[in-house]
Design a protein that fits this description.
alpha/beta; Quinone Oxidoreductase, Chain A, domain 1; 11 helices; 318 residues; six-stranded parallel beta sheet; 2 domains; homodimer
Chain lengths: 318, 318
């Protein structure tokens, strides 16, 4: 297989594209011929030596989400047949033209969806769906407020919220961001004064502490705040009394470091609730740019730069 | 009816016991002949003018929990017949020998339970059960840690936790408190170093902010902290990042100010899960002292004093 490797910890100087033997699928795995792989901030952290690969994943091949075609099935794998187009999460090793993945951690790519967009979906939509539906329990008629609405997870959350029958707000700091929120069927609200303009049953926090204590003000009685990102600040002052008075819930969650069963359950819930909307074109993943695998360094530079509008992908068949 | 009233806001000088016409049960209400009524800190707050009676409750008659006998049923009330012994929560007006209450807000007193102990149960056991089971979702095999284990809600929580098959710890500051925790089937742990000695799936916080951030240290992955009391401090510094890493939940909750449906649901869950244990004598409510209704002022003094071991009751038939 051809794969991106890190020869050590550092910047792009440790990034190389090399040939390796194909990985062998375990009993419950499928071996995928990867078409596109999505890049994630965690890949940059791994490059810097701050995010070691989990047990079972190749230590020096980054990459957490892929789309591709089933090339071989493990002896116990029953969900797919050779030739099926699938997409999903891998524990690591996704930046390669072959990867093995547990058959329950991928889903069939719907007919109407191309593999390019499919590779931009897993991390963003699984994270968003797990946060607002499984943890936040958002239902029709409720109101969702998304902080960080312009990113991959945020834009997925806006669309999932709209599709589930909620009224959806995304907080924004610019007119361009407001337009993106509108384009996805939601309503923009200023990041400065959202607490006086919105009362939300579920708040998805992708930015961090700066939105507290306003988040508690904006929360409806029995509301749920789900924290998935704290890049702008990890620690906040919190009124336990206000939490009691609103009978509020604050959830912290991350997708990574979950058990095989947990990841499978996340995928099954996604198949049930989100995949139909993606298949019908009612939701879409944003692709910022596509780089050939040989241009992995340029792709990482793009990933690290500001102002992206969607996912940065590597093309392994281009 | 004979009832305790507040003639204004203040201390015991506003407390009087007077005769009034009996209240009339509404369509779905039952009229109870009250045997015992439990006193609560909220009654003292109402005496001080800081806790107005909710709509529908008499403005000047305090009292939130009672045991008694059904004397009349409203035209639409179907759950009980005249003569049934019942106990439960009232929105107000409980310190009287007659009170009307929605039939779905009371439960039948089990045969083996006397009305004296029954009057000490509702607020403590409903609050504890709603917090650790409905919000905290404690199940068998998990570990529960209770802060404030010596109070009414805390001692109820210890027993409910043991009855549901959990390993239960109560944090304590004295050997006397440790002995009470042991007597209720749980394990005492020092309030000073619980975080290094216990890993809990559910933490019931009845004291407040001083137990943070140690509560987050003591929390198991996917653990739930349920805050029901913050007398020792309402505001805390909270690590949102730690919440994410543990995939933790923080719930605030209170029993009061709930809808008719919510209160009914709390009572039904209590009947299903807690009442069998109370009926069989596997759980018990602690009664500190019983005062005749005419001694309401003395009862309030006792309620306000430290070192109580259980509920202060008023006896309306003694």
């Amino acid at each position: 297989m051809r794969c991106v490797i890190y020869t050590g910890a550092g910047g792009n100087e440790v990034v190389e594209v090399v040939e390796r033997p194909d990985p062998e699928p375990g009993t419950d795995d499928v071996l995928l011929r990867v078409r596109y792989a999505g890049l994630n901030p965690a890949d940059l952290q791994q490059r810097a030596g701050r995010y070691p690969a989990p047990p079972g994943a190749p230590a020096d091949v980054p990459g957490l989400e892929v789309s591709g075609v089933v090339e071989r099935c493990g002896a116990g794998a029953r969900r797919f047949v050779v030739g099926d187009r699938v997409f999903g999460l891998v524990g690591g090793g996704g930046l390669a033209d072959r990867v093995v993945v547990h058959e329950r951690h991928v889903a069939l790519v719907p007919d109407g969806l191309d593999e390019r967009e499919a590779a931009a979906i897993p991390e963003a939509f699984l994270t968003a769906h797990d946060a607002i539906r499984t943890r936040g329990r958002l239902v029709m008629g409720e109101t969702l407020l998304v902080h960080g609405a312009n990113g991959g997870v945020g834009s997925a959350a806006l669309q999932i919220g709209v599709a589930c029958g909620a009224r959806v707000y995304g907080s924004v700091r610019s007119e361009a961001a407001a337009q993106l929120v509108r384009d996805l069927g939601a309503e923009p609200v200023s990041d400065e004064d959202f607490a006086s303009r919105v009362t939300a049953d579920v708040i998805l926090e992708l930015v961090g502490a700066p939105h507290f204590p306003a988040n508690l003000e904006a929360l409806a009685p029995r509301g749920r705040i789900v924290v998935v990102g704290v890049g702008a600040g990890p620690t906040t002052e919190l009124s336990l009394l206000a939490m009691m008075q609103k009978r509020a819930e604050l959830h912290g969650t991350v997708l990574r470091a979950r058990s095989i069963e947990d990841k499978g359950a996340v995928l099954r819930a996604f198949e049930r609730e989100v995949l139909p909307g993606l298949a019908a074109g009612r939701m879409r993943a944003l692709v910022d740019s596509v780089f050939a695998a040989a241009e992995a360094r340029e792709a990482f530079d793009r990933l690290a730069s500001p102002g992206k509008a969607g996912k940065v992908l590597l093309d392994f068949e281009g």
